[in-house]
Design goal:
The protein has 12 helices and 21 strands. By secondary structure, the protein is of the alpha/beta class. Strands 1, 2, 10, 11, 12, 13, 20 and 21 form an 8-stranded mixed beta sheet that branches. An 8-stranded mixed beta sheet has the order 7-8-6-15-16-17-14-19, with helices on both faces. It has a 3-stranded antiparallel beta sheet with strand order 3-9-5. Helix 1 packs parallel to helix 9 and helix 6 packs across helix 12.
């Protein structure tokens, strides 16, 4: 079967790209080893983060590096094999994290973030998924007066970027979430125009269903190899995707496979410095005593607790490890010690916590745009912690690129060749 476009990867980014392409006249195949929304897009904190105008630089202050070194933190942990394997990418990450570099990177990053809720809204309406969305923001909790003051200053500055917030005293925080124990906290920032999603996987699946209703095709199959289509005519060269069940052909090919993207394109001569960061989550049954209405991020401990359809989801920070390393629940266990002081968490929903990897790039920006060695090959991956937030705007840009339209956002800062230097 031949398609106009094949999109490999059915997370939020790939599903959104397929949706936009199908919605604008292309015949599209969305191909993944699992059904839409079953991997990284399943396991996030369920936030569409309009406030996320800042990136997460590599620690450069000695005190911060010393803090991380014992490898017992709740926000970040690491494994030595991963540090060795990805040492070149991590060195680049460190180099990109100077204050001057971060300032430039964030100005480019913000051109994507400013479109996150408006682009989600288009797809939410088309997919009839409004019941999954709550639009009254989330809470950033602070234990330290120093970090709280810095966060308030940053929030005031963020108003210039269209980010809305309210500073909450401890009493106001307790009034908003009476079931939570805020002993040890000094206050919070309520990010007002960011959105909560009660089931991230269900939202991706709703977008995928809308894609199918537009006559798009979804196939669940593991991709073994991608090759230029030598059978196509010289003036209309395309692609063949060899999967476990069949071989599929297309004019254009989009790689949106998150942390697996590099594995797909390396045989074609690409080796981008992508590295994975793992996260864990576990759900706990909701009762009258632990009901909360907003997701809450413990800024000083680096974890999120939020109300989901499946229960109260406790989401860890990041673990630097390899893709196939066995699960290590030490970070989650430490997180749960702090989470249980805030909320009553008695009965876990799952017998084992979920784990999944996020695709990260050293300069903290995704790769969006054409490949430089092949025509009609397009990249859309590397969104780090914000693939769920940025999927729809990325999908729109992919469609505009393939259909040669004026671009909503300048994609030059996100091109794949920026690491060739």
């Amino acid at each position: 079967m031949r398609y106009d476009v094949i999109v490999i990867g059915a997370g939020m980014v790939g599903t959104a790209a397929a949706w936009h392409l199908q919605n604008n006249g292309s015949k599209v195949l969305l191909l993944d080893k699992k059904l839409p929304g079953s991997e990284t897009s399943y396991g996030n904190a369920g936030l569409i983060q309009r406030e996320a105008i800042h990136t997460h630089p590599f620690p450069r202050q000695l005190t911060e590096m010393v803090r991380v070194l014992p490898n017992q933190g709740t926000d970040i942990r690491y494994r030595i094999p991963a540090l060795l394997r990805y040492h070149q990418a991590l060195l680049q990450y460190w180099k990109y994290s100077t204050p001057a570099s971060v300032k430039k990177i964030e100005s480019e990053w913000q051109t994507l973030i400013e479109h996150c809720t408006s682009e989600h809204q288009v797809m939410i309406e088309e997919a009839g998924a409004d019941e999954l969305i709550t639009r009254d923001g989330w809470l950033q909790l602070h234990r330290s007066e120093e970090t709280f003051k810095s966060a308030i200053d940053a929030a005031i500055s963020a108003r210039e970027q269209g980010v809305e917030h309210k500073v909450l005293s401890l009493d106001e925080l307790k009034a908003m979430e009476p079931n939570a124990n805020f002993d040890g906290f000094v206050g919070a920032i309520h990010w007002l125009n960011s959105w909560q999603v009660s089931n991230p996987s269900a939202l991706v699946k709703a977008y995928a269903k809308s894609f199918q209703e537009k006559q798009g095709t979804i196939i669940e199959s593991n991709v073994h190899q991608i090759l230029p289509d030598v059978k196509s005519s010289a003036e209309d060269k395309g692609w063949q995707v060899i999967a476990e069940d069949d071989t599929y052909y297309s004019d254009h090919l989009v790689i949106a496979a998150g942390p697996w993207s590099n594995d797909l394109i390396k045989p074609l001569g690409y080796n981008l410095p992508l590295f994975p960061m793992r996260g864990y989550h576990q759900h706990f049954k909701i009762s009258d005593k632990n009901t909360i209405h907003h997701s809450m991020f413990d800024m000083d401990k680096g974890f999120v607790m939020g109300p989901m359809q499946q229960g109260i989801r406790i989401t860890t920070g990041a673990e630097m490890t390899t893709m196939n390393a066995p699960k290590n629940f030490g970070q989650l266990k430490t997180v749960l010690k702090f989470a249980r002081k805030i909320l009553l968490l008695e009965e876990a929903v799952e017998s084992e916590a979920w784990a999944g990897s996020r695709p990260c790039m050293p300069d903290m920006k995704p790769v969006i745009g054409p490949a430089d060695k092949h025509d009609k090959l397009w990249f859309a991956f590397g969104h780090s912690h914000q693939g769920f937030t940025l999927g729809p705007i990325t999908g729109r840009l992919v469609e505009e690129l393939i259909h040669d339209k004026p671009l909503t956002v300048d994609v030059k800062p996100f091109n794949a060749t920026r690491f060739s230097k």
